[in-house]
Design a protein that fits this description.
Number of domains: 1
CATH topology: Rossmann fold
Number of helices: 3
Oligomer: single chain
CATH superfamily: Vaccinia Virus protein VP39
Distance between the termini: 20 Å
Order of helices and strands: EEEEHEHEHE
Structural class: alpha/beta
Shape: globular
Strand order of the largest sheet: 3-2-1-4-5-7-6
Helix content: 10-25%
Largest sheet: 7 strands, mixed
Number of strands: 7
Length: 161
């Protein structure tokens, strides 16, 4: 099972091809993810893990096209990004994009846009900050307070013929 860990930084994962822009221990491939195409064949990976990557790239839609290209049919992309109203979304000056509840819906089939990729939304989870994880009405609080939600984790499945 071919698995890819994009923008791994120090989160090197066993059993994955670990890719980062900086060569460090455990990084298998050094590549700038703003340069296309990526050094992988079409329909190669069954799973791609991209934790805190998409907010750093120049063109999210171009990256999504490339991830779709290298995913096998029914391959899964797991992406974790900072939530737009968390302080973490704005603290890092290298963040170029922000993500909200419905952002992942722009990447799926029949979203009203003509894209070069087709994904199905498998799951999406809001990761709440402490102490909001245990407050029953936390879902309402995220509309009026900052830092209620820390990040969004979504899984997309590549839809290919």
């Amino acid at each position: 099972m071919a698995k890819l860990n994009l923008g791994c930084g120090t989160d090197v994962r066993k059993g994955y091809v670990n890719v980062d822009i900086i060569k460090r221990d455990g990084v298998d491939v050094v590549h700038d993810l703003n340069k296309f195409p990526y050094p992988f064949p079409k329909n190669h990976f069954e799973e791609i893990h991209a934790s805190h990557l998409l907010e750093h790239v120049d063109d999210v839609l171009k990256v999504m096209e490339e991830l779709y290209r290298i995913l096998k049919p029914n391959g899964i992309l797991t992406a974790i990004v900072p939530y737009f109203s968390s302080s973490g979304a704005f603290q890092d000056p290298t963040h170029k994009h922000f993500f909200a509840d419905d952002t992942a819906k722009h990447y799926i089939v029949n979203n009203g846009y003509n894209r070069k990729f087709k994904f199905e939304l498998v799951s999406q989870k809001l990761v709440y900050t402490m102490p909001f994880r245990y407050i029953p009405f936390r879902n309402l609080l995220r509309y009026v307070l900052l830092n209620v939600v820390n990040e969004i984790k979504f899984k997309l499945k590549a839809v290919k013929e």
